[in-house]
Amino acid sequence: MKTDPQRAARLSVAPMMDWTDQHCRYFHRLLSRETLLYTEMVTAPALVRGGAVHLLDHDAAEHPVALQLGGSDPRELAQAARLGADAGYDEINLNCGCPSDRVQSGTFGAVLMTHPRLVADCVLAMREAVDVEVTVKCRIGVDDQDPEVVLPDFLDHIARAGCRRVTIHARKAWLQGLSPKENRDIPPLDYDLVHRMKARFPDLHISINGGITSLDEARAHLDAGLDGVMIGRAAYHQPADILCGADPMIFGTGAASDPVEAVRAMLPYIEAHLASGGRLHQITRHMLGAFAGRPGARSWRRMLSEGAVHKGAGPELVEAALAQIVEMPERQAG
Ligand SMILES: Cc1cc2nc3c(=O)[nH]c(=O)nc-3n(C[C@H](O)[C@H](O)[C@H](O)COP(=O)(O)O)c2cc1C
């Protein structure tokens, strides 16, 4: 299916290692037809040197879906991008924001904020290798860099290399002394700087990311002139709050989706997964927050998190947990 990832990027679910796997994305797609979905980061060396092409597996229903790559070798990234495009991804994104130790040691992720010329070379090589759009996800800077200086210079480099779309996680990464988790919370957010970058680079499609927890906040950023909003943790933990209203509120299409219907639509997918030897919790772990804030949510979460790990657990457990939601609407929120 041909899709327009640039249009879809008005709202996107962030790439999140171990979270936005193909099961998670399948579920999110049932909640929003339009929102752009990102894979977890896949490293170029794993694909190119390790031959781990199974990391590219995805379902046709996931489109529009972008592959995020990690790496810093232009030739290897170009090869990885080609593998991704051949596998059917609508966009190839380069990770310049991830601060984990493992990623730093391979000279990729956020440390690339200190190598804008190398990033431009990577973008150029990837663009030459594929027809789909090549995009970048970055921070506003790292360590003692001055974001006011570094970020425009970085954007200038990637724009000159032909990158037309970028997502900016609106905080620095501190490469020493903070865990990856702390690096998502402790460095202060600077939304204003991202908005000023849009004024300075009007031709660049700029999405803002970091700490956005509602569609109202997302709308406010769009109304103030940004092109897109990327939401990570809130979309994962409260998918209904973020994704069910996304199509009408952000894209002006269709009606709000119903998480109960989405869960029911997961049942055939779950059955197929079990039939091919998979386990229930591999899918349901991404659905625990489906009813966050609704009556019965706590029972839903508990039944699935305790029951789905058992061997032989199947769709009947999901249906029983769903009964906690649909049959007890008057109960207090879980
Ligand atoms: C569990 C987890 C894994 C993540 N993995 C990645 C990743 O693979 N690539 C990436 O660019 N960012 C990754 N991130 C960062 C998110 O994409 C996002 O930039 C960050 O969570 C801030 O957005 P939020 O406040 O909306 O969650 C990860 C975040 C989390 C919580």
Task: Please describe what this structure looks like.
This protein is α/β, with parallel strands linked by helices and 334 residues long. Helices cover 44% and strands 13% of the residues. The chain contains 16 helices and eight strands. An eight-stranded parallel β-barrel has the order 1-2-3-4-5-6-7-8, surrounded by six helices. Strand 5, helix 7 and strand 6 (165-169) form a beta-alpha-beta unit. The radius of gyration is 20 Å and the shape is globular. Mean pLDDT is 95; it is low at 330-334. Bound molecules: flavin mononucleotide (FMN). Flavin mononucleotide is lined by residues 14-19, 40-41, 68, 95, 97-98, 137, 169, 184, 209-212, 231-234. It comes from Ruegeria marina. This is tRNA-dihydrouridine(20/20a) synthase.
Strand content: 5-15%
Give the CATH H-level superfamily of the largest domain: Aldolase class I
Low-confidence stretches: 330-334
**H/E order of the elements?**
HEHEHEHEHHEHEHEHEHHHHHHH
**Rounded mean pLDDT score:** 95
| Ligand identities | flavin mononucleotide
Helix percentage: 40-55%
Report the CATH architecture of the largest domain: Alpha-Beta Barrel
Whole-number tally of structural domains: 2
| CATH topology label of the largest domain | TIM Barrel
Major β-sheet strand ordering: 1-2-3-4-5-6-7-8
Assign an overall shape: globular
Largest sheet entry = 8 strands, parallel, barrel
Number of helices: 16
Q: Which structural category fits the helices and strands?
A: alpha/beta
EC number: 1.3.1.91
InterPro entries: Aldolase_TIM, DUS-like_FMN-bd, DUS_fam, DusA, tRNA_hU_synthase_CS
Enzyme class: oxidoreductase
Function: Catalyzes the synthesis of 5,6-dihydrouridine (D), a modified base found in the D-loop of most tRNAs, via the reduction of the C5-C6 double bond in target uridines. Specifically modifies U20 and U20a in tRNAs.
